[in-house]
Amino acid sequence: MSSTLAKIMEIEAEMARTQKNKATAHHLGLLKACLAKLRRELITPKGSGGGGPGEGFDVAKTGDARIGFVGFPSVGKSTLLSNLAGVYSEVAAYEFITLTTVPGVIRYKGAKIQLLDLPGIIEGAKDGKGRGRQVIAVARTCNLILIVLDVLKPLGHKKIIENELEGFGIRLNSKPPNTGFKKKDKGGINLTATCPRIHKADVTLRSDATADDLIDVEGNRVYIPCIYVLNKIDQISIEELDIIYKVPHCVPLSAHHGWNLDDLLEKIWDYLKLVRIYTKPKGQLPDYTSPVVLPYSRTTVEDFCMKIHKNLIREFKYALVWDLSVKHNPQKVGKDHTLEDEDVIQIVKK
Question: Omega of the bond prior to 286 within 30 degrees of 0, cis?
Fold first, then answer.
């Protein structure tokens, strides 16, 4: 066992036996900050010696978005991927069969979406056990995570997987704390009762932040939307299914029978928040077959140009835009104009 893993286990053990109260809050804050730092070192270890990440884990990111399927062995991830994309991972009715990351691609509403069937995650992945560490490293690069659960035993598996992802700095269905952080060369912290591990910094709170939020400010955190796929609904009653439908972020389905896949695809589309922009060459009708797809956080005309080719923005004079983001059709706009889903655009060059 590496020294980093040993330190992590020591700190976790100390936190487990420390009572939570006002007197121990400062001490627990120190331990949490140490834990965050050590786990960050696990994700990005010092030096580059040793072997690579392992066969099958270096998957090139293609398409407009990447979705990672995470779950315990034998919950039906591979079957679900097969039904969605027609990509057949090696599937069998026993545990730990998928050994490498298997990519598949689907086209949905004009967008090209990469699906990754990640190997079965096991408890202790965040502490370097098995190949779970590599699985989570790939999960960090995804735009959306699907946690596939067996509907007959969902809660236990759900908590374990969330704990593993959390330990590697993945925050599910949450937003970054609205907190500013700037390191300084000298001086102390300008805010009292913040993360004790940061000794020289300016910290700005714009919302009611918890101690965990402050630890997240300085660190390698990623915030990823997540859908919980409750598989094997053919094994439960209608009454139980009605209850499951009320659980947030959940989609019940049967991968084996192909039930409710349409609902899953719709929810995937909602969570990815992709923006489709149609191009219109001068004097021609818009091309509605192959949209340029942008992430919701980068939807300006300049972002659109950069997605096509970086030289296009240098030659850019103005754009004509039709549809929701403009008052008049067409409307002449500059590079800073924000586009909306299914806008039509024509670029006019210098």
Answer: no
